[in-house]
Description:
alpha/beta, disordered C terminus, extended, three-stranded parallel sheet, seven-stranded mixed sheet
Amino acid sequence: MRVVRRGMLFWAAGARKHRAEIQSGDAVSGTPEAHKGTEESRRRPVMDAGLYPIAALAPHRGWIFPGLDHRLAAAPAMVSAAPPVRPYAAADKTPKKGSRKTKQEETKKKQVTRRWPLMSKPVDDVYLTWYYERPSYDVEEAVGMLKKFQELDFTYPKQYVYINVFLDMALQKKKKVDPFASTVLLPHRFTDEMNKVLVFTENEQEAEIARENGAAVVGGVELIKWILEDEIQVDFYIAVPAIMPKLIPLRNKLRRKYPSTKRNSLGHDIPKMLQLFREGLEYVVEDERVIKTRIARLDMPTEQIVANLKTVIHDICTFKPSTYGPFVQKLVIRSSTSEGLLLKLDGLLPQVEKVEEEKDAEDGEKDVQESVST
Length: 374
């Protein structure tokens, strides 16, 4: 490798020397006679290039690289030539962020391809679902379909029935309804599980009543330390109003399970509160607008499933602001092994909403009549 590298450097030095001879007119490229005078110079050791004496690898570079002399002779002219003019125009400046051009480009990108309007009802039982609107069913019809799905699929008959409730949590002027949680006592129980409830009270008579009605833990201020250290863990906490000022250290620990009148976990009627939280169903708003909860078992009668569903929906609607429109946007029912069925909301929402709408309409008509008369 060292010999080859030195040979290459020797060849480069010879090329530079020969280029100088061509420029001075002492040598003419292309003919063997023109290179006879330089044969000796090529074979001599090159001392000015800082190399060791070594013989040339080839007697003439033109034999190995044909036409090299012409290229070396034309090289100085190419270096001195002026750069060519660009045949294309300069690129446009990048538009600013707030310019109209960028806004138009963004609107073009956001434009969605136009789709044909969905058809209402399919002709037969086999069809592409995305070509048709999603069908909606009455509650009784949907529950009957779930029972039929279970028989056809040979699945577990005592599986749970679930509902997904989609809410309209947005209000006017960029406000919205805060996510909430609640516990509701269903008219027809579908599980034998009992929740563990702790009762805060310092009255001996109230403590005895709590124990008789199934309280898991009963006590006063002495329980705070055990709760903060996670020595006591229960499902719900209820309290009487007299002890509430002493329970402030537990506010950050319990959070939404902290006793309050809004959740019906603060009051004097201990047996009623214990029944609600020991046997009740708890649901929470997830993702700021969706409630997912179970309401019954599939082997229960259809009337009982419908009654439990209406009870949950009525309890959800109690969190709707009084001056607000429809609260429930969409309602889906399903079992553990079936697809979701969209329900019709007619007959499921409480009548209070319709009464409020009629009152609002009557108030609007009165205002219009008064303005006309004035």
